[in-house]
Amino acid sequence: MTSFVIYEGPSLIDGMPIVAIAQVDSGNRKTGNMVQTWILRSDIDPITASRTGADSSICGDCPHKGKPNNNAKGWATDRTCYVNLLFAPNRVYKSYKRGIYSTMQGHDNIRAIGLLRGVRLGSYGDPMAVPSYVWESLCSGAEYVTAYTHQNNTMPHLVMTSADSLAQADSAWSNGQRTFRVIASLDSIVKGKEVLCPASEEAGARVQCASCKLCGGASVKGKSVAIVAHGASKRKAKALVV
């Protein structure tokens, strides 16, 4: 087995049922071979959850999740999240519903999944939806961690605060938090405070996250990170950031 259920229970965001699944081997070309973690509604497939707004359980108030609609298929209107729900999230959900993933419980067992590996919290979904003890166990023996949240950041030592405006970034910086900020153009980078994501197209995509390791919260000594809005909905995403 290379994928494991590490949490099943209520979302800390709205109390609805969710599941967190850790995938040990990953062929993600941007991040490199890290432990990927998928946070999903356990009772609704990711596409339906997006379309109906049920993804608030795992995305909270993230502005990139779009607006619920009454369409018979597809996802939320004006969704700008870079994660394509048709691919990994949908496949992981279907595999979970088939019952092919073993459940790992207890600190030692969950710790073993991330031991001496890179761990990515929230390959899809916001880490704040899951109790912190799960992530503390998974990351306790990890080589490095990458993580982001649009919610109130209760684990700033591990998790970057996602910012969509300079005001949001300033607020986080004043609280000693490191940020990952989506910007409209390179001119928006705050010199002395931020660096351009080395894995971005504008930086030449010269390194993978597994080599960069900058996005690990306040435990990483370095500047905050900024990235120009990208992906299939980058025009819409640029309209959201200021």
Question: How does this model look, in words?
Answer:
It is a single chain. By secondary structure, the chain is of the alpha/beta class. It has a domain at 3-109. 24% of the residues lie in helices and 22% in strands. The chain has helices at 46-52, 56-59, 88-97, 107-114, 132-139, 166-174, 209-212, 234-240; strands spanning 3-10, 17-23, 35-41, 102-103, 118-124, 144-149, 160-163, 179-183, 194-196, 224-228. Strands 4-1-2-3-5-6-7-8-10-9 form a ten-stranded mixed beta sheet, sandwiched between helices. Helix 4 crosses helix 5. The model has no long low-confidence stretch (mean pLDDT 92).
| Multimeric status of the protein | single chain
- The count of DSSP E runs of length 2 or more, i.e. the number of strands, is 10
Mean pLDDT: 92
Helix content: 10-25%
The largest sheet is:
10 strands, mixed
General shape: globular
Q: Whole-number radius of gyration?
A: 17 Å
First-to-last CA distance: 44 Å
In what order do the strands lie side by side in the largest sheet? Answer: 4-1-2-3-5-6-7-8-10-9
Structural class of the helix and strand makeup?
A: alpha/beta
Tell me the number of helical segments per DSSP (H or I, 4 or more residues long): 8
Beta-strand content: 15-25%
The unreliable regions are none
The topology string of helices and strands comes to: EEEHHHEHEHEEHEEHEH
Helix/strand layout:
Layout: E1 3-10, E2 17-23, E3 35-41, H1 46-52, H2 56-59, H3 88-97, E4 102-103, H4 107-114, E5 118-124, H5 132-139, E6 144-149, E7 160-163, H6 166-174, E8 179-183, E9 194-196, H7 209-212, E10 224-228, H8 234-240
Parallel strand pairs: 1-4, 3-5, 5-6, 6-7, 7-8, 8-10, 9-10
Antiparallel strand pairs: 1-2, 2-3
Helix pairs in contact: 4-5
